[in-house]
Fold this protein.
Amino acid sequence: MRNLFNLYFILLTAIGISSCTVGKKHISSDQADDTANTQEKHGFTKKNYDSLVIYCGKDSIFYDSKLRFIRSSNNAHYCLREKAFLGDTTACRQIATIIPLMRNPFSVYDEKLRGEILFKAVLEKLNNFEFVPGPNGEMDVFTYYGSYARIMYQMIESIDGVSPDIYLPNNYPKRFATELSGIEPFSPEYIQKSGRIKWEIFKESYEKGLIKFKAFGQE
Amino acid sequence: MVQYAQPGLTKSLTLYLWIIGFVFCGGDRLTAQEHDSMARGTSEVSEIECFTSDYGFLIGGNYYRHKEQVFFCAGDIISLTVVDNASRTAISEAPTNAGSIVFSGNVTDSLQGDSHVLVMPADYNDKGKAVVICTFYVGSQEHQIQITINGITDRHIKIDKSATHSIAAYGFDENKYPNYPNSLSGLPSKLLPAQGNDKVKLESNLSKAGKAKVFNVVSLSDLTPAHLSYDVQGDELELTHIHAEAQNSFTVHACAPGISLMEVDIYPQKTMIVEIYTLCESDDDVINYCSTNPHLMPDCTTPIASATHECILPGTDLALDRYLDHAFWRQRDNDLSKPSDILDYTNEKPHELKIRPSYNPSTGRYFCNKKPQPNNIAPCPDPLTPGELSTLQSDLNTIYNQAGIHVEVVDKGYKHFNFDLFATEDNTLSFQEQLRLHWTIVAYQGDFPDNIVKTNNTIIWRVNDIPPSGSSVINGRATNFGINSAAINVTNGSPTFRTIPHEIGHARYALRHPDDDWSNEEDMTGAVNNDRYNIMNSGSLFQSHPVGSISDFRIRRYQWRKIQTKN
């Protein structure tokens, strides 16, 4: 009877260990799969870590090896914008890096940008006079420049001593009169060409040192 | 020395097997069936007669019965005392005066006595739960009682994503769509107003009794962070913000930091004021000459004596009707034999068009040859009724309260206004006309059209008609992203309860359609074409997936963040 008991014990123990081990592997495997899926889904692979990661506090923005946006965590863009708005040079440079990588909309960077570093980035990004969709998909009203030019206006305290809303209308009529002559006002061609003229006025003003930027932190 | 009750070997083997089972695999998960089975006392172990219900356990001030399931967070220090149920006193004391007290099961007893101190889960071999057995003698009679201690896991407590929508007053995002920004954690998100409160529903894989125990334990002390306070009533968890400052993006944990329940954003409550104008084309230009003799001033006596005389005066809108329709203004309404009036304008400020008289050098006389646009050719929209106003206010609050925004709607009434810039389609608002209408109401501030000034209050124009886009009727249209005005087609369109909140999303908060590849938010990783409850979906999604009522629509987390920064 004692031997029978021992045999019974050994047999049952072996079965118990075996079944538990199989269960553990299964769970472990599931967890491993989940982890792999999560990494794949969010681009957290070593390859991606090797490309561009921008940190702000505890948050971060990831770009792949071709500098395509992958994912940002929680507050990253707002965090960067607020730091840059208050004059953090590193944050300004980081946003200046991000802006050329952006798809069409400026997203959170459509306001509260300050300083020369970011102005240059926005100016270059707005050198684009293709039509982009309006709120309801209209394709013949807003160029890329026309959609986002207000970001530049809002960064400037004055051009040659007056607000950009005064400087521009004082300076583009002469060019309009010659370069837009014969073009129907507000036709698509007119909208594109007038936008380019205004952009060039901004660029010339900047290169001549006529622009006084709003101070960091100034609403 | 444990003495097993007769018949001996069979039951001894069963108990041994049970202990072995627990040592090696017990407690990987607690199922409802397991819990119920133990509660009903139907397990094989319960057949051992020496287990008794006369004694129980005192843990953290609470009494637990023999065989009861209890729940604690990992890391909790659990001080456990075996007590007599009748007197609630420790068994080593009177009246029980028990002796030879030994703890066994999944714990190792280091000290003799009626109490045992444990730490979850280290004392339980990381299995997540364990049985504590206490064996003792009262006189010559041996007794055993047991209790099952479970470590709380994310299967025992989590947010009930679908049920939370029915009780939450503010935004809740179940985080189902990984293409949306801020979805990285996979956790649901909750918006909470600063110094305010709101509720979420909890769920669990446990039976009703087990759930109540877990939710109770958690409600008492195991939810973090500390700048929220927590209250659990049944399966409803109420969160109250008790910190001086609003914060966003922190995680609420149960059994901190073990179980992540949700992410919480806290924002101060804000107000949006929406002004509703029912627009009727006014055509309010006024003849500024003698209608019976256009050589003369309106007094029909004084000759027009200056080339800078204005033949037509604009009305209260300060601009001439159809000011972009130069062919119209060159018509010779008074005398076909005389020249057209002179159009004085610049391309930069076309709204400042002036109609000057022609001059005949041989006679030395000026002549005005144009009449203004006749008034109100097309019908005007009906005014907003008090019922419609009330429904609109309610609908807008249903949507924007989710983002922490209280909406006040002000009916500015019937407004006669000239917005016809091109042809004769009175009371029909084209896109160019809408842009210039906005520019007009901000008193032509800013450099048109690139830097139009946005309005403080949100402006909604109810108009008779908006021209179709191809074959599609336009029910509503924002003037542009972020400049805070929109038009609604109330007579010839079919606006629904969704139209105005949707257009305000574009107009005030610069939100975009999540289902448009060409236009979605910057930090989205692709269009989301299957979130039928997103208030900002394009109309095309709703044509194939109609949604029942305004309360079905959601503000997602990425949207409430943008809304809060732009309000």
Notes: The helical segments of chain A are 2-42, 46-49, 76-85, 89-98, 116-125, 144-153, 164-179, 188-207. Strands of chain A lie at 52-56, 59-63, 69-72, 131-132, 142-143, 156-159, 211-213.
